[in-house]
Amino acid sequence: MANLVLILISLLAIGRTLVHAGEPSPLQDFCVADFDSPVRVNGHACLDPKKVTADHFFFEGLHKPGNTSNPLGSFVNRPTVDEIPGLNTLGISTVRVDYAPRGVVPPHRHPRASEILIVLEGEVLVGFVTSDPENKLFSKVLKKGDVFAFPFGLIHFQQNVGHGNAVTIAFLSSQNPGVIPIANTVFGSNPSINDDLLAKAFRVDKSIIRNLKSPY
């Protein structure tokens, strides 16, 4: 009986640990980000509630199409806690992406969030790759109204594969999910990663690495 009690206590402790594995739950109604505070915590310090207004929870413009006339053919409108101070400690944010035909959101990852994406217009190829050693690709073409989830931290991508423009909106499980574009990070770092190292890592000639670095 004593052993059973110890097992139950252990399972409860593990369960509590798993429940609190994500961003911590708020301890008050809200904690609007105080960008002027010198205090640095995991997030922002709380603005005096007496100074909080409805505008701290408001963002205007997510309905407006973005300019996709760029090499990627996409535009990302990503209001996070920096644009909506009321998101501070809430563990959520959103993003709208506009795509020209064949436009892409190249492979990237969010170091602090999972993501769920909804197609508002068009047809969009989406996918993510699991961690090493499997590196398994999960990919699907989505149409208007379809939904797809990207697991926490995994590399994923989107591409407009329809004949017209496309629009998606996504929700992320962090007020500040961050984004790490794989190509920009590897080939555009400052200072630059050694050409010889990258050539060996990608199994190509160093001249190719130099060409890949040139746009950055």
Automatic annotation (TrEMBL):
<feature type="binding site">
    <location>
        <position position="110"/>
    </location>
    <ligand>
        <name>Mn(2+)</name>
    </ligand>
</feature>
<keyword id="KW-0964">Secreted</keyword>
<comment type="similarity">
    <text>Belongs to the germin family.</text>
</comment>
<dbReference type="GO" id="GO:0048046">
    <property type="term" value="C:apoplast"/>
</dbReference>
<feature type="binding site">
    <location>
        <position position="115"/>
    </location>
    <ligand>
        <name>Mn(2+)</name>
    </ligand>
</feature>
<dbReference type="InterPro" id="IPR001929">
    <property type="entry name" value="Germin"/>
</dbReference>
<keyword id="KW-0479">Metal-binding</keyword>
<dbReference type="GO" id="GO:0030145">
    <property type="term" value="F:manganese ion binding"/>
</dbReference>
<feature type="signal peptide">
    <location>
        <begin position="1"/>
        <end position="21"/>
    </location>
</feature>
<feature type="binding site">
    <location>
        <position position="115"/>
    </location>
    <ligand>
        <name>oxalate</name>
    </ligand>
</feature>
<dbReference type="InterPro" id="IPR019780">
    <property type="entry name" value="Germin_Mn-BS"/>
</dbReference>
<keyword id="KW-0052">Apoplast</keyword>
<dbReference type="Pfam" id="PF00190">
    <property type="entry name" value="Cupin_1"/>
</dbReference>
<feature type="disulfide bond">
    <location>
        <begin position="31"/>
        <end position="46"/>
    </location>
</feature>
<keyword id="KW-0732">Signal</keyword>
<protein>
    <recommendedName>
        <fullName>Germin-like protein</fullName>
    </recommendedName>
</protein>
<feature type="domain" description="Cupin type-1">
    <location>
        <begin position="60"/>
        <end position="210"/>
    </location>
</feature>
<keyword id="KW-0464">Manganese</keyword>
<dbReference type="InterPro" id="IPR014710">
    <property type="entry name" value="RmlC-like_jellyroll"/>
</dbReference>
<feature type="binding site">
    <location>
        <position position="110"/>
    </location>
    <ligand>
        <name>oxalate</name>
    </ligand>
</feature>
<feature type="binding site">
    <location>
        <position position="156"/>
    </location>
    <ligand>
        <name>Mn(2+)</name>
    </ligand>
</feature>
<feature type="binding site">
    <location>
        <position position="108"/>
    </location>
    <ligand>
        <name>Mn(2+)</name>
    </ligand>
</feature>
<keyword id="KW-1015">Disulfide bond</keyword>
<dbReference type="InterPro" id="IPR011051">
    <property type="entry name" value="RmlC_Cupin_sf"/>
</dbReference>
<dbReference type="InterPro" id="IPR006045">
    <property type="entry name" value="Cupin_1"/>
</dbReference>
